[in-house]
Structure formats: structure tokens, C-alpha cells
Amino acid sequence: MSVSMKDLDPAFRGVGQKDGLEIWRIENFKPVSMPTSSYGKFYMGDSYIILKTTALKNGSFRHDLHYWLGKDTSQDEAGTAAILTVELDASLGGRAVQYREVQGNETEKLLTYFRPCIMPQPGGVASGFNHVEVNEQEHVTRLYVCRGKYVVHVKEVPFARSSLNHDDIFILDTNSKIFQFNGSNSCIQERAKALEVVQYIKDTFHEGKCEVAAVEDGKLMADAEAGEFWALFGGFAPLPRKTASEETGEDTEAAVKLLCFNQGNLEPIGFESLMHELLETNKCYLLDCGAEMYVWMGRSTSLQQRKGASEAAEKLLVDDSRTKSHVMKVIEGYETIMFKSKFNEWPATPELKLSSEDGRGKVAALLKSQGLDVKGLMKSAPVKEEPEPYIDCTGHLQVWRVNGNKKTLLSSTEQSKIYTGDCYIFQYTYTGDDKEECLIGTWFGKKSIEEERASAISLASKMVQAAKFQATMARLYEGKEPIQFFVTFQSLQVFKGGLSSGYKNFIAESGLNDDSYSEAGLALFRVQGSGSENMQAIQVDAVASSLNSSYCYILHDGNSVFTWIGNNTTSLDHDLVERQLDAIKSDLPSRSQKEGRETDKFWELLGGKSKYSNKKIEREQESDPHLFSCILPKEQVKEIHHFNQDDLMAEDVFVLDCHSYIFVWVGQEVDAKVKTQAMDIGEKFLVRDFLMENLSRETTIFTVSEGSEPQFFTRFFTSWDPAKSMMHGSSYQRRLAVLKGGAAPLHDKPKRRTLAVSGRTLGQDKSQRSRSMSTSPECHRLRGRSPAFAALTSSFEKPSTRNLSTPPPAVKKLFPKSAGPDTTKQSAISDLTSSLEGPLKSTIPKSVKAGAEAEKAIQEEDGTGGDDEAEDDEGRTVYPYERLVTTSEDPAPDIDLTKREIYLSTADFREKFGMTRAAFYKLPKWKQNKLKTALQLF
């Protein structure tokens, strides 16, 4: 589609370059930009164009264009708005989705821009009416009807008893009080959403100064507020059970028609099955689905063709008097999910990228030729972020291997070693926002058997139920793990084969060779990760083709160990391979092999040279989140656009789709049976693939209960108030209490709950689980260094940057179910952990004291302490050797278990190690660990 500057109105130049809204009103057939202070104010006699620009995670922009027509706007103005919208789309590169909006029948997407509702005012430019500010008018009693469970359509109706019915919510706005009348057939969610409109009316028309009353359908005059309400209608009188309403009837399902725009005429296209092949790229089509009409524009069509198609669609609506049909205009290659779903099949198409040779690039070139600034016109700069886990990394981890229909607890030294033929259950308790959080998950190895996968889900579900659904549950598959899993384990080794009874039986029955890992056998490991708190060694086939220039590897047989350093690796990768070497093969010295300078012995172990990749293995990336309400038991979903926390209703189940993983959120008021089916709901969502994004059946699923949302879920909401999710009662009861009280009164901040298990298992290998208490983004990169260094840097941190989680405001429970805060959840998780393994001692190491002691430790590690250490013990915390060994019956308190040797006196250090500290810290890491192991200091 060619675009010339004469087609672009000056008011549209340079728009759509930042996230947010831009609005124009049609005045004398020209678009006039509206000030932001007027956004959301619509007049019945006017037409408007609304541009919503959304910055996507991939750095590009998505544009949604709406033209809104007031009920009193002229046909000429409406036509002008439609044409100008096409021109604006052209200036944006011809990729925007266009929506025709009619007063009283707006799309839900438009209404989400102006929460909680749109309430057009009388007047308009063309009519000559003056636009009078609402607070300058004399108050007039008005009656409104509200419809909608997710967004609210508000319409003014005559102030008369005959306007009321049992199916809808009505708001009566009087001078001194606002009444909400809840029809007996209305649902809780509709009532809760209508209260948002009441709040809006109170703030907008009454400056926040008036009373609010709720009236239930069926309450008689005996109720004071009901009596006051009915008195305004001349007294109470029963309403008929069925009241005729202009909008109660549902749209009848019409036969789908496909019409082609050809030289200004609409020509019907005959078809037996609606297929994508019917659409030609050089033509425009109209897909008429009754309540919805789509104008499809081929990428090879001209601007004039698109304008003509828009005019023909407008004329068809007017001629057929179809006032309620929504019209959406889509461009080839950028069709909406709803449009694609109308076809029997829609081929998967690669994502189309903006380029300087197409669409916006042509417009940018034209603007630049006229001397205009086009910086940023193509797309916004991608935000480069390191993935953050949004979870405290200093919690307590327990791991079980599934054997048949039972689970076996792994020791602390074995829980980081998992096998690809087995299934595992893990429970991780950690400090959240002023409370203890619990994550219970299952991990399925690629070669694990279905029976044990089912057992794992069943056993984990029972653990979640024992915690009264106040633990987050995760279902993970090997190769699809989220970062939360990796930082929970921190150091992880994944071996071939399996140890479970189910896997062993399967191998025996199938006559397959058991390739389970053996320390004395030949094995090749790919090392990956982002630091000491996130590193893995994955066993791969011991052949040269398994190598990759972007990774480091460990290769060993019974007698030798090699580390292979790819040419594309960094110093961080080199550090990780040394750390993983300690975990896999610390008893033998290793020989380093640089890519391109390998020894013959190395290639001999791999069976000879072979071609291999040099590109890093790409993991599925998190995409822009989409929130869906699940309609049970119909197994249907409805997308909630531009969602926020208030969209999560306590009576419903929602799915948050982030592509690389999904969350199933379950409200407090949901039936207990449905709560147990949360994981099944997530699996069905993956099968349906509502966004047509080719979701894998192995995509990670998290189930989250209201009131127990982890930060890695709440981060997707613009502003999350923990107080809201901690309130009890229905969504309607909660909002009514807040509305009547003016604001949620603050209770004392709840005390942090202490679980039965709050530390590391005694004897856990701390060299593999060293955890820095600092989780700020600034200190995130320092975790790979020594605890002494971490302690020193942490002493200079700002308090505001110490945690990933921002402390929430004080929590208020309007309808408490127990006297003390969080006692239910505390006792549930405590009972669970106690019943499983019994209380364990806390062994979380405290950070090495900052100051002179930490500074000395750093100097020693760097070898700068000097050979003369006669005075080094001054100011140092020193313990006898007997209290520092791992088998000590009287262990030294408050020490860093990964650096036991720094607490030895200078004399003891020389005696035990036979060298100075400086000489010791100059040794390779594996040799340091070997010496410490021999002395029971590792």
C-alpha cells in the first residue's frame, strides 16, 4: 500500500510512538487532538478517534484504532471518522486493527481504556450545544442500568419503576445518596463491577461527598435503605418476573457470509467451508457474522481500496439498520485471534517484522524527506533485562523421588542430582512479602514413565490440599523449566537414566539398555547458567556432535577428567564449569581443553571428531501476558483486555498466559472441588491453545490461590495491593465494605510466620547451596563471589534495594475467618512439613561479618595477605578445628559453611593445610576443595 504525504492529516504526524492513549475529536470534518485532561469525556453529538499504543516485549508497538460515534453525531461526521481512521492506520504502517464503536454498544476492549465505564454527556460541536462541565450543572436525579461481568456497559434509562427488572443492576443517582439496586437474577461479579461505577459517579458528580446504599431485589419497605429507595419511585410494587428490555435478548446466530469489494460493489463469495485460501492479497473482503463484521484488507491493496471498503461497510450497516453490530478492520498478516477462529483452518504464519522497506518505513522516509524528526518511528528500543526469578533464594528445599505410587525423600547431598528417567516432587518454603511462601512442584524427566508422572501429580496435589490450597503448585517438564526452578535448586545436575522402580521395571520389560549415569563410566556434561545461584550440568550423549562453542563441558571416564572451553564462552561460563566440576568429579584433577586445541585423548573418548553447533540453545521466551476468565463447566474462556488486579474475582478461575508458562488463579470463593481441578484446567487450556500460539503440552503450569500469590505472579499486574487479596467474603461484599468506608482501614502489619522447617537440612552440602541474602538487582551479579565479599558489599547496600520484593502496605481482613493473621496458612504448612519429615533444625548460614574480618578473607582469597600472618588473628572470629569440621558434635555458630577454613587460627591453618592462607587460595578450586574434604572442612 503506497502512502503519500497528502493522505496524512497534519494532526496524525508523529503519533503512536509511545505507550498510551491519543484521542482526536472530529470538528468540521478535521481531526483535532484532545488534551489528556479530557480523555474519557465523550459527547453524544460528536465523533472521536482513539489510538491505543502498546509497547510489546519484543520492542515493537501494537496499535489498536477505534472510532467512536455518539448517538447524535451526523452521518457525514461518522463517515469522516471512518475514513480518517484508515488514513491514520496508513501512517502507522497499515498494521493496526480498527474498531467501529457506537455509543451504548462499545467493544469491551475500548471500555477497558476508560475504566470503570463511559458515560457520554449531552452536547457536541456540530450541534452547537455547549459542553457544560458536570460539576457546574444542577444535579438531576438519573437512573442507569449496568450490564457486564468483566467490563461495565452503562446506559441511562427513564427514571421510572417500569425501567427496573430482575436481571440487571441499576444505579439511582440522587442529590444526596447513590443507590445500587441488585436484580435478583444478577450475579455476584456483575454486582461487584457495578460498585466501581458507583464509586466513579460519587467521585465525578458528587466530588466524593455523598452516601452510598445497596438495595437487594425483593427487600421490602421494612429495610430502611430499601424503603428510601422505593419511596423515590412512589412506593414499593413487585416487579414482573420477566421484564421486556431492549437488550435482554441475545443475538441470534446468523449464517456467515463472505463478500468481496469489487469496484465499489459487494459481491457474495460462495463456499462450502470457510478457508483461508478464499482471501486474495490484492482485494478487500467483508466477513459478516451477524453480531460481528470484519473488513479484511489484503496487503497489496491501495489506500483508496481500503477507504472504499470502509465506506461500503458503513453503508451496509446503515441500510440494514444494524446498530449493534461491531465492525473490526484487519490487515493481512495481522489478523486478530477472533477473526482467525471464524475459519476452519488458518495456516501458521511467521511473525512479520517491521522493516525500512515496508509500511512504517515508507512513511518514515516520507516524513524525513520533509525535515521531520522520525527518531523512534520504526519501533521502540527493546528492553534488555536479565531474567529475574522474583523469588527469595534463601529458603528451604526438600526433594522426593517418585517410586511407583510412593515418594522417597532425598538427602541434602543427593537432592540436586536428578535423573531424566525419573519424576520428582519438590517443596520450597521461603520468605515472601511479610509471610512465608510455599512452592510445591513436580518435575518430569524426558524419559520418565506416565504412571509415575500421574503418581507425582497425585502426591503433590495431596500436599497442596494438606496446606489448604495456600501453596503454589507447579508442573514442570525437563527442558521447559522456568528460572524459579533453577534458583530453587541453585546447583543442579541432570543425569541420564533413572533410579526409580518404575523406570527400572520399564527398562527391563522393554529389553532396553540401562544407560543410567555411572561415576566410573564415560559421561559428557553441558554446563549452563547465569551464576552461582543458577547453574546446571546436563548429561548429553558422549559424542563430538553434542559439543557447542557457546558452552563449557565436562568429560570424564573412570580415570580422567577433561573440561572443554568453547570459543564463544565467557569468564562466567568458565567459573560455572569449575563449580560443577566440584559437584560431579572433585576427586580427580581435570585437564582443560580449549576449543581448537584439544588433545587426541579427548577426541578418542568422544569417538572421534565431528561437526557441532556454535549457537546458544534458545529457550522459549516470556511473551506479553494475556488474562482469561474460565467459564466453567462450559470449558470456554474470555479474554480480559488491559487487565488489573480488580479483574480477579473471588468467585472465578482465571488463566494468565505468558507463553513460556501459564498461571491458573483460583479465587477464595470457588468451590472446593474446582480447586482440586486447577491443574486439569491448565492442561485443557494448553490443549485448546486459544491464542493460536502453538503452546506445547509441556508448558509449565503454576496454580495459585487467592491470598497466596507469589511475587513471580503479581509482577504481571501494574499495581498489586496485597490487602485486597487477603480480604474475605465475596467480591461484592469486599468492594461494598470499602466503598461505604471510604477506604480500607489498616490493621496492624501481620507478623511473619515461622514454619516448622525454616532452615537447611543438617549436613547439607553448602558448597553447592551458598546463598547470598542480598537479592537486589545491583548485587545479583556478585553472588558468584565469596560470601566474605558478599558480606562486605551488603554492608554498603541501600535498604530500599535489599530485596526483590517490595514490602506491601499493611493488610486488612474485612471478614476474618480466624483471630490471628495468617494463622490458618501457617498451621497448614507447618502441619504439612511436620507430618512429612518432622521439624528440622535451622542451618541457614549467616553472612560473614562485614568489616575487617571480611576484608581479610577477601585479601586471602586473592592471595594478597602476604606470607607473614603472625598478626592476622587479631579481630578475626576464630574457632578450634574440632568445632569447624562437618562431623562436629558442638559446631561453631553463625559461620559461613562454605568457608569453614577462614575461622581457623593462623597456627591451626598452617598445621592442617601445611601452607599459608595466601598459598592455599592460589591453588585451583578443585584442589582447594580436595584438601578441605580430606580435613572434613567441605
Portion in beta strands: 15-25%
Strand sequence of the main sheet, in spatial order? Answer: 2-1-3-4-5-15-14-13-11-12
Number of helices: 24
* First-last Cα distance: 69 Å
**What structural category do the secondary elements indicate?**
alpha+beta
Uncertain runs: 128-132, 243-251, 351-359, 369-384, 743-830, 832-871
Question: How is this fold's topology laid out?
Answer:
Elements: E1 20-27, E2 30-33, E3 47-55, E4 61-69, H1 75-91, E5 97-102, H2 108-113, E6 142-147, E7 153-157, E8 169-173, E9 177-182, H3 188-205, E10 211-216, H4 224-231, E11 257-262, E12 265-268, E13 284-288, E14 292-297, H5 303-319, E15 326-331, H6 337-341, H7 360-369, E16 396-403, E17 406-409, E18 417-419, E19 423-431, E20 436-444, H8 450-466, E21 472-477, H9 483-489, E22 491-495, H10 501-510, E23 523-531, E24 534-540, E25 552-556, E26 561-565, H11 571-584, E27 590-594, H12 600-605, E28 626-631, E29 636-640, E30 653-657, E31 661-666, H13 672-676, H14 678-688, E32 700-705, H15 711-714, H16 722-726, H17 731-741, H18 787-794, H19 823-837, H20 852-861, H21 881-884, H22 906-913, H23 917-921, H24 925-934
Parallel strand pairs: 4-5, 9-10, 14-15, 18-22, 20-21, 22-24, 26-27, 31-32
Antiparallel strand pairs: 1-2, 1-3, 3-4, 5-15, 6-7, 6-8, 8-9, 11-12, 11-13, 13-14, 16-17, 16-19, 19-20, 21-32, 23-24, 23-25, 25-26, 28-29, 28-30, 30-31
State the main characteristics:
alpha+beta; 32 strands; globular; 10-stranded mixed beta sheet; 938 residues; 24 helices
